[in-house]
Write a structure and sequence with these properties.
Layout lengths: L11 H12 L7 E3 L3 H7 L6 H11 L7 E3 H13 L8 H11 L6 E3 H10 L6 H11 L6 E3 H11 L11
Antiparallel strand pairs: 1-2, 3-4
Length: 169
Amino acid sequence: MEFENPVIISNDLEKRIAEAFSMFDHIGNKTVDVREVGTILRFLGCTPTEQDINEIISATEFEDTRGTIHLSRFLPHVCHLLTERKMEPASPEKLLEAFKVLDPDGKGFLTKEFMSKIMMEEGEPFTQEELDEMMAIAVDAQTGNISYEYYLNQLMCKTKESIYELTTN
């Protein structure tokens, strides 16, 4: 299917979104399956809820090609959301604060079992695959617990430049 609207990339934010989108464009026609939207957003460093993902799909999916999204609609919509700082991850300080709430005794760690239960049953639940990926990094092999300050430091060291830093340019 040909689309009349060419995709014009005019800044670094748009370039980064388009590059992430193209990684999931398996046919090379500037379209992705709607099931890839959440993956693309997370790849960009966003933290969308399922509701956010569904709203983006509703706003960008073409009526005549249900199940696919074209870059010409996805790019401006996601740029707008990012400029408004939607789906932005929590700061390290906020994450530490949240961990401390889960650790009222101030031990400095959470058990793997407790954290697994929280991640699977509270708020926006993790999938088993997401939980396994998190635990592979979070759990201390010697104690079997999650030393949350150490875990947060690991996360911060692995973080590349935030997509949100490009919204100020």
